[in-house]
Amino acid sequence: MYRFIIEDTRHVPPFNEPASLLTIGATPLKIHQENLFASLFKRGLELGHPLQNDDDVKRIREPGIVYRDNLWFDEEFLDYFMRRAWATKRACRAAIPADDPAFRRYTLPLTTRFERGVDEKGRPIYLVDLWFLPQGYTDDVQPIVVPSDAKEKGFYSVPDFMAQDRGDLTHYLPARAVLSIESWVHVYFASVIFGVFTRGSRYEEYIKTHNFTALKLLWRGVMEQKQLLSSSEVVKVGKDTIIHPAADISGPTTIGDNCFIGPGVVIDNCTIGNNVSIDQGCQLMLSTVANNCFLPFRASLYLTTMMENSIVAQNTCLQMCVIGRNSFVGAGNTFTDFNLIGEEVVGSDGLPRVVPRPIKAANIDGELEDVGQVVLGGAVGHNCRIGSGLVIFPGRMIESDVVLVASPQRRVVSRNVTFEESDHHFIEAAGTAHRRQYPRKDEVVEETQDSTWESW
Q1: How many CB atoms lie within 10 A of CB 150?
Q2: For a Cys-Cys bond, which of 13, 274, 299, 392 suits 413, CB 3.0-4.6 Å?
Q3: What is the pTM of this model?
Q4: Contact, 300 vs 317, CB < 8 A?
Q5: Rounded to whole angstroms, how far apart are CA atoms 94 and 114?
Q6: At what angle do helices 198-209 and 211-224 cross, to 10 degrees?
Q7: 2-147+176-190, what's its fold?
Q8: Count of other CB atoms within 10 angstroms of residue 244
Q9: SS3 assignment, position 431
Q10: 2.160.10.10, 3.10.290.10, 3.10.20.310, 1.10.275.10: which CATH number matches 193-441?
């Protein structure tokens, strides 16, 4: 059986890179997909020729699996689809219910690829770019509807003016998840909401229904003289990793190889990659940190994901943000996550009230859309250098290769920042010192030689 990949070459803002190359959680999306198929198909799948669009799927004559390379799905979603598709022995395509609360809140906003359809009972569905073709493509492709079976769980309790009279901010945490990565917001949803947050929820539900696992967790805590969620049963640590005794780590958490966790560090339900250093007093909650990152003292990550080789300096607070690879976020920066100015609406009781103004973010075509989130941070692209003391408004993007320096003219970032607005263009000699590495799709970048080299 073959594995055919539809190559999506569109660049995801603000990273200026196809989704398949982006890191979701602590793993590049391309590797994540390969690992899932390798786990499900023990005999392996032979890689077929690359496809350019959905029409190429109709020309496949060999048995195989077809998927778009910007599609993120978890093991549970793939397993559910494959088991039911295999049982039909027919050509099948994955689909999601249009009225599923988790998919409506996270998967559909900012998405342009999913096709509308109906199931056998006439209910509306969205078709996902994932096919099972046991005998090659046939015209009678059957949709396999995969429900999320999400559970609504409290996030934290806030005053009514922030949560629109609900009292709690909640998320729908699915049993099966899928996303088309077309925005930095999707990277956040996949890494955090469908990633570590959902992992914690699933583990909690598993403990409730499996007494042996609960007893094993209790026994491990007693033997190690630790709180249950701090024992080695739920906190997995890699080789040659050093953790200071004064660090407070609770699971489910995964920490990679060759890491250093300093004194006073608090980590709660996170995924940490390899060769990561987290210094004294840092706090991480429901966040992911990819390989080779560095957090100096008192840096804070709250529902945030960092890609490889990046630094978040001391006293900087990131909330519901995405940081690209090879980027530096300086000391004392704050990424805000809530629109302070609301708007007046009429409630169900007929009385006017003020609710938070919807937060908007750019889709893959650069168009602003409501993301349906009361709180949301911002995004920093690849190879960025962010100075100290900046305040970034909710939902804003800083494009790859941008340098920002706080000044009286720009200390508050109230709109998206493009490469053309980067401060290094206006700093003497900085133009050649900071080269563009992630141009936009089809953009031609002129090569510039260093003046010192020319002198030779």
Answers
A1: 23
A2: 392
A3: 0.92
A4: yes
A5: 11
A6: 110
A7: Spore Coat Polysaccharide Biosynthesis Protein SpsA; Chain A (3.90.550)
A8: 14
A9: helix
A10: 2.160.10.10
